[in-house]
Protein backbone atom coordinates (compact mmCIF):
# COMPACT_ATOMS: atom_id res chain seq x y z
CA UNK A 1 0.00 0.00 0.00
CA UNK A 2 0.95 3.74 0.06
CA UNK A 3 3.66 4.78 2.55
CA UNK A 4 2.41 6.38 5.74
CA UNK A 5 1.82 10.15 5.60
CA UNK A 6 4.32 10.87 8.37
CA UNK A 7 7.07 9.01 6.47
CA UNK A 8 6.41 11.00 3.27
CA UNK A 9 6.40 14.27 5.20
CA UNK A 10 9.67 13.34 6.95
CA UNK A 11 11.32 12.53 3.60
CA UNK A 12 10.32 15.89 2.13
CA UNK A 13 11.71 17.79 5.13
CA UNK A 14 15.01 15.89 4.97
CA UNK A 15 15.35 16.62 1.24
CA UNK A 16 14.78 20.35 1.84
CA UNK A 17 17.35 20.43 4.66
CA UNK A 18 19.91 18.59 2.54
CA UNK A 19 19.32 20.96 -0.37
CA UNK A 20 19.77 24.01 1.91
CA UNK A 21 22.98 22.60 3.36
CA UNK A 22 24.46 22.02 -0.10
CA UNK A 23 23.47 25.52 -1.20
CA UNK A 24 25.01 27.15 1.90
CA UNK A 25 28.22 25.16 1.45
CA UNK A 26 28.47 26.31 -2.15
CA UNK A 27 27.87 29.95 -1.18
CA UNK A 28 30.49 29.91 1.55
CA UNK A 29 33.00 28.20 -0.71
CA UNK A 30 32.33 30.74 -3.44
CA UNK A 31 32.77 33.64 -1.01
CA UNK A 32 36.04 32.22 0.29
CA UNK A 33 37.60 31.24 -3.02
CA UNK A 34 36.13 33.56 -5.68
CA UNK A 35 38.23 36.35 -7.16
CA UNK A 36 37.92 40.03 -6.36
CA UNK A 37 35.89 42.01 -8.87
CA UNK A 38 37.92 43.36 -11.80
CA UNK A 39 41.03 41.53 -10.59
CA UNK A 40 42.76 38.49 -12.00
CA UNK A 41 43.32 35.44 -9.78
CA UNK A 42 45.57 32.46 -10.24
CA UNK A 43 46.44 29.38 -8.21
CA UNK A 44 50.00 28.20 -7.65
CA UNK A 45 51.00 24.54 -7.63
CA UNK A 46 51.10 24.63 -3.83
CA UNK A 47 47.51 25.86 -3.72
CA UNK A 48 48.23 29.50 -2.82
CA UNK A 49 46.07 32.10 -4.52
CA UNK A 50 47.51 35.23 -6.16
CA UNK A 51 45.25 38.26 -6.77
CA UNK A 52 46.42 40.79 -9.33
CA UNK A 53 44.70 44.19 -9.31
CA UNK A 54 47.51 46.19 -10.91
CA UNK A 55 46.93 49.31 -13.01
CA UNK A 56 43.13 49.35 -12.68
CA UNK A 57 42.75 53.01 -11.59
CA UNK A 58 41.37 51.83 -8.25
CA UNK A 59 40.85 54.51 -5.59
CA UNK A 60 39.90 52.26 -2.66
CA UNK A 61 41.32 48.99 -1.34
CA UNK A 62 39.03 46.14 -2.54
CA UNK A 63 36.96 44.58 0.23
CA UNK A 64 36.15 41.34 -1.57
CA UNK A 65 39.62 39.80 -1.66
CA UNK A 66 39.34 36.00 -1.10
CA UNK A 67 40.45 34.99 2.38
CA UNK A 68 42.73 32.23 1.05
CA UNK A 69 44.86 34.78 -0.85
CA UNK A 70 48.62 34.57 -0.36
CA UNK A 71 49.78 37.37 -2.67
CA UNK A 72 48.10 40.63 -3.62
CA UNK A 73 49.37 43.07 -6.26
CA UNK A 74 47.68 46.48 -5.98
CA UNK A 75 50.44 48.49 -7.64
CA UNK A 76 49.95 51.32 -10.16
CA UNK A 77 46.56 52.43 -8.85
CA UNK A 78 45.25 55.66 -7.30
CA UNK A 79 45.04 54.83 -3.60
CA UNK A 80 45.67 57.83 -1.32
CA UNK A 81 45.24 56.11 2.04
CA UNK A 82 45.23 52.66 3.61
CA UNK A 83 42.41 52.62 6.18
CA UNK A 84 42.35 50.73 9.47
CA UNK A 85 41.82 46.96 9.07
CA UNK A 86 42.09 47.26 5.27
CA UNK A 87 43.33 43.67 4.98
CA UNK A 88 41.55 42.01 7.88
CA UNK A 89 40.49 38.43 7.30
CA UNK A 90 43.51 37.45 5.17
CA UNK A 91 45.39 35.09 7.50
CA UNK A 92 47.48 33.49 4.74
CA UNK A 93 48.81 36.65 3.08
CA UNK A 94 52.60 36.56 2.61
CA UNK A 95 53.16 39.36 0.06
CA UNK A 96 51.42 42.72 -0.39
CA UNK A 97 52.38 45.16 -3.17
CA UNK A 98 51.08 48.73 -2.83
CA UNK A 99 53.85 50.40 -4.80
CA UNK A 100 53.37 53.20 -7.36
CA UNK A 101 50.21 54.66 -5.89
CA UNK A 102 49.33 58.08 -4.43
CA UNK A 103 49.54 56.96 -0.80
CA UNK A 104 50.08 59.82 1.62
CA UNK A 105 48.51 58.32 4.74
CA UNK A 106 48.64 54.97 6.52
CA UNK A 107 46.04 54.90 9.27
CA UNK A 108 46.70 53.26 12.63
CA UNK A 109 46.16 49.50 12.29
CA UNK A 110 46.27 49.66 8.48
CA UNK A 111 47.92 46.22 8.30
CA UNK A 112 46.40 44.78 11.46
CA UNK A 113 46.07 41.00 11.42
CA UNK A 114 48.88 40.42 8.91
CA UNK A 115 51.68 40.12 11.48
CA UNK A 116 51.87 36.32 11.74
CA UNK A 117 51.93 35.69 7.97
CA UNK A 118 53.16 38.69 5.96
CA UNK A 119 56.74 38.41 4.74
CA UNK A 120 57.05 41.28 2.26
CA UNK A 121 55.34 44.68 2.04
CA UNK A 122 56.04 47.05 -0.85
CA UNK A 123 55.20 50.72 -0.23
CA UNK A 124 57.77 52.18 -2.60
CA UNK A 125 57.11 55.06 -5.00
CA UNK A 126 54.26 56.68 -3.10
CA UNK A 127 53.78 60.07 -1.40
CA UNK A 128 54.42 59.08 2.20
CA UNK A 129 55.82 61.97 4.21
CA UNK A 130 55.22 61.16 7.88
CA UNK A 131 56.08 57.79 9.37
CA UNK A 132 53.20 56.38 11.46
CA UNK A 133 54.50 53.56 13.67
CA UNK A 134 50.95 52.56 14.65
CA UNK A 135 50.20 51.57 11.06
CA UNK A 136 52.82 48.81 11.24
CA UNK A 137 51.75 47.32 14.57
CA UNK A 138 52.68 43.63 14.83
CA UNK A 139 54.42 43.48 11.44
CA UNK A 140 57.79 41.74 11.25
CA UNK A 141 57.94 41.68 7.47
CA UNK A 142 60.58 43.00 5.13
CA UNK A 143 59.33 46.29 3.71
CA UNK A 144 60.30 48.45 0.75
CA UNK A 145 59.92 52.09 1.84
CA UNK A 146 62.06 53.72 -0.85
CA UNK A 147 61.13 56.57 -3.20
CA UNK A 148 58.85 58.41 -0.80
CA UNK A 149 59.24 62.09 0.18
CA UNK A 150 59.95 61.29 3.83
CA UNK A 151 60.10 64.14 6.34
CA UNK A 152 62.69 63.42 9.01
CA UNK A 153 62.07 65.01 12.41
CA UNK A 154 61.99 64.14 16.10
CA UNK A 155 58.68 62.27 15.66
CA UNK A 156 60.32 59.95 13.11
CA UNK A 157 63.34 59.42 15.36
CA UNK A 158 61.09 58.38 18.26
CA UNK A 159 58.81 56.23 16.08
CA UNK A 160 61.42 53.99 14.45
CA UNK A 161 62.31 52.02 17.63
CA UNK A 162 58.62 51.21 18.11
CA UNK A 163 58.23 49.13 14.93
CA UNK A 164 59.17 45.47 14.49
CA UNK A 165 59.82 45.56 10.74
CA UNK A 166 62.96 43.86 9.50
CA UNK A 167 65.67 46.41 10.47
CA UNK A 168 67.14 46.64 6.98
CA UNK A 169 63.74 47.82 5.73
CA UNK A 170 64.09 51.12 7.59
CA UNK A 171 67.14 52.07 5.53
CA UNK A 172 64.63 52.83 2.78
CA UNK A 173 63.58 55.98 4.66
CA UNK A 174 65.64 58.60 2.86
CA UNK A 175 65.02 62.14 4.11
CA UNK A 176 63.70 64.58 1.52
CA UNK A 177 63.01 67.28 4.13
CA UNK A 178 63.98 67.60 7.77
CA UNK A 179 63.31 69.56 10.93
CA UNK A 180 65.58 71.24 11.81
CA UNK A 181 66.65 71.95 8.24
CA UNK A 182 70.20 72.91 9.12
CA UNK A 183 71.00 69.48 10.54
CA UNK A 184 71.82 68.28 7.01
CA UNK A 185 70.08 64.91 6.55
CA UNK A 186 68.43 65.64 3.20
CA UNK A 187 69.20 62.82 0.79
CA UNK A 188 70.48 60.53 3.54
CA UNK A 189 69.06 57.28 4.89
CA UNK A 190 68.28 58.33 8.44
CA UNK A 191 68.89 54.89 9.96
CA UNK A 192 72.45 54.95 8.62
CA UNK A 193 73.21 58.25 10.39
CA UNK A 194 73.36 57.20 14.06
CA UNK A 195 75.16 60.38 15.15
CA UNK A 196 72.34 62.68 14.03
CA UNK A 197 69.90 63.75 16.73
CA UNK A 198 66.69 65.24 15.33
CA UNK A 199 65.31 65.81 18.81
CA UNK A 200 68.07 68.25 19.78
CA UNK A 201 65.81 71.30 19.25
CA UNK A 202 63.03 69.75 21.32
CA UNK A 203 65.54 68.94 24.05
CA UNK A 204 66.83 72.51 24.00
CA UNK A 205 63.29 73.83 24.15
CA UNK A 206 62.58 71.54 27.08
CA UNK A 207 65.73 72.71 28.85
CA UNK A 208 64.77 76.36 28.35
CA UNK A 209 61.26 75.66 29.62
CA UNK A 210 62.70 73.97 32.71
CA UNK A 211 64.99 76.94 33.34
CA UNK A 212 62.07 79.35 33.02
CA UNK A 213 59.99 77.29 35.44
CA UNK A 214 62.88 77.04 37.91
CA UNK A 215 63.50 80.79 37.67
CA UNK A 216 59.80 81.41 38.31
CA UNK A 217 59.82 79.24 41.40
CA UNK A 218 63.06 80.86 42.61
CA UNK A 219 61.54 84.33 42.18
CA UNK A 220 58.44 83.27 44.11
CA UNK A 221 60.55 81.87 46.96
CA UNK A 222 62.70 85.02 47.17
CA UNK A 223 59.59 87.22 47.10
CA UNK A 224 58.03 85.22 49.90
CA UNK A 225 61.22 85.41 51.99
CA UNK A 226 61.43 89.19 51.53
CA UNK A 227 57.79 89.58 52.50
CA UNK A 228 58.29 87.29 55.50
CA UNK A 229 61.35 89.19 56.73
CA UNK A 230 59.65 92.57 56.31
CA UNK A 231 56.54 91.39 58.10
CA UNK A 232 58.64 90.05 60.96
CA UNK A 233 60.61 93.30 61.13
CA UNK A 234 57.38 95.26 61.44
CA UNK A 235 56.13 92.96 64.17
CA UNK A 236 59.48 93.21 65.97
CA UNK A 237 59.38 97.04 65.78
CA UNK A 238 55.90 97.16 67.21
CA UNK A 239 56.84 94.76 69.98
CA UNK A 240 59.96 96.81 70.79
CA UNK A 241 57.93 100.00 70.99
CA UNK A 242 55.50 98.25 73.27
CA UNK A 243 58.32 97.14 75.55
CA UNK A 244 59.76 100.65 75.62
CA UNK A 245 56.44 102.05 76.67
CA UNK A 246 56.11 99.75 79.68
CA UNK A 247 58.38 101.68 82.21
CA UNK A 248 56.68 105.01 81.53
CA UNK A 249 53.29 103.47 82.06
CA UNK A 250 54.51 101.88 85.30
CA UNK A 251 55.89 105.29 86.53
CA UNK A 252 52.59 107.00 85.80
CA UNK A 253 50.77 104.31 87.74
CA UNK A 254 53.04 104.88 90.77
CA UNK A 255 52.47 108.68 90.67
CA UNK A 256 48.74 108.12 90.53
CA UNK A 257 48.97 105.84 93.57
CA UNK A 258 51.00 108.45 95.59
CA UNK A 259 48.51 111.27 94.86
CA UNK A 260 45.64 109.04 95.92
CA UNK A 261 47.39 108.26 99.20
CA UNK A 262 48.05 111.94 100.00
CA UNK A 263 44.48 112.84 99.34
UniProtKB/TrEMBL annotation:
Thylakoid listed as a keyword: no
Pfam family name, one: LRR_8
PROSITE patterns: LRR
Keywords: Leucine-rich repeat, Repeat, Signal
Annotated ranges, domain LRRNT: 34-71
SUPFAM superfamilies per the UniProt record, alphabetical: L domain-like (SSF52058)
Keyword Signal included in the entry's annotation: yes
PANTHER family: IG(IMMUNOGLOBULIN) AND LRR(LEUCINE RICH REPEAT) DOMAINS, LEUCINE RICH REPEAT NEURONAL 4
Listed name of the protein: Leucine rich repeat containing 3Ca
Amino acid sequence: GAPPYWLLRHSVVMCLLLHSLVLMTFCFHHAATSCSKSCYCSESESGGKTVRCSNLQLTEIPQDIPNDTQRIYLDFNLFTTVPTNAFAGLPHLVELDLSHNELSQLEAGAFRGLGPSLQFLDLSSNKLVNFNAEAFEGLRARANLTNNPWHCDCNLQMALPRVDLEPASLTGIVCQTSDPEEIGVQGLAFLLEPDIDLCVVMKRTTDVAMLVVMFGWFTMVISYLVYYVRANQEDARRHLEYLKSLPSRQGKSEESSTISTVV
